Amino acid sequence: MADVVIQATNLSKELTSSLLRRKVRILSGLNLKVARGETFGLIGPNGAGKTTSIKLMLGLMRPTEGAAEILGMPAGDKKALAQLGYLPENPYFYSHLTGREFLDFAGQLFGIEKKERSERAQELTKLVGLTEAADTQMRKYSKGMLQRLGIAQSLINRPQLIFWDEPMSGLDPIGRKDVRQILFHLKEKGTTIFFNSHLLPDVNEVCDRVGVMNRGQLIVQEDVKNISQGGSYKDLEDFFLEVIAKAEAGAEARS
Amino acid sequence: MTGNSGNIDGKQAGPKVFEPVWAIALNTFRETVRDRILYALILFAAIVTVLGIVLGSLSVGQDIRILKDIGLAAISFIGGIIAVFAGTNLVYKEVERRTIYLIFTKPVSGWQFVLGKYIGLCLCVAVMVAAMGAFLIFVITAASGSAGFAEQLRQMGQELALIYLELLFVTALATFFSTFSTPVMSVLFTLAIWLAGHLGDSLIELGKLTQNPVISQFLSVIFYCLPDFAGLTRIRGHLLYGTVPGIEVLTYLVTYVFAYVLMLLVLAAIVTERKEYT
Lengths: 255, 278
Fold this sequence. Notes:
heterodimer, A: alpha/beta, Rossmann fold, B: 11 helices, about 0% strand
């Protein structure tokens, strides 16, 4: 694979439950490579380890075993963080700020000049359809508007690589269509995209490759083209349900 | 859109290092100032000052002194309440609301975050102290009729500066505790140390009274570890009676406070940097 920008090697994470001090393994041996310009979708049931994988790749959490490299640098490296954008799941922002103030704040954290920040805020509010609400305090935003603003802030530094955790969450069909268009626009520009989603039709439409996670393990990776054109599965949803069913059956047999 | 970030190589040379610090400080300042609780506290200060006028009118010849005493005590108390309650929520709230994810997935270090939060709150406390101080001086000027606003400002400016110095200290304590503790526990820890710092001299006296060298030594160690708020209060007392301490005392005091604040912020930054955000 040429020019790998995301590489996870045996990435694993254990958490200690606070009550019984019992160790719980929430991610086991994740091995993954994503090439520059690729759009990779990570799918799986709730609690499968998708968000944990992203947090480990971004350095918000430290692995118990293994390692992750982003743009050839260790996870959490400030040089790598300067070149990526992140949208958390169900994003919470500073409700006292307006949308424009928040984008300006995000730009300042990247050290972007004031004039440039202002231009990018203008451009991004337009891109995500928040021009009219840009000067409204975020406490008055709907969930969908917050999601759109989250997308905008993740693009303020014009990143080479984006990590979006459930980008379609809270959006109505029009919002989802808008986000898909933004994703296509970013793909055209050569941005590498890594995202988690439960909305399989969107993943199917946008992604080049998908990974399916279950119970903290990446159980399969496949090109979206192969799934839809291989003839074995009706669509991505059919593929996903079958893969999960097999994995669950295997897990039950082992226990 | 690709490959044109503001700070593409992640290097933060020169003033750029402080850009995130200033952004976080300004955001913290805005958040605290836009919080309506502050307006209630300003109102409270006004009520206390008016109360001072009433009390002052009941005591012949001492009205201005009583007004000053009550007014400054109110400013110190209210400033302290802001520092403790806003400070203990500083970092904790960012983690609880998960806004911290947005900070630490950008090229921001733990020390930049902690310093930004601290400076933001200190700015807010400075505005509050200045607003309350200006109000108090205005009331005293109006009540005394003799000295003008500028003269009252000259007389009370140093006392207000000392109050602010103490509040810088309290804010640093609250910030430090907020990096690893819940707001309730942080409030308790901060208030306990604030109070104990005011009773520092009593620890030495207690040590002498016990006549046990081990306990006496132990209490001395605690005395030297605790922030010396009692020292600040002593100097404020001198100022209230018109005695201005020498420059060496003031230099020592400022150096002491800043060294202690720096130590607390370094510890807070280390805790923040080592923490995982699950």
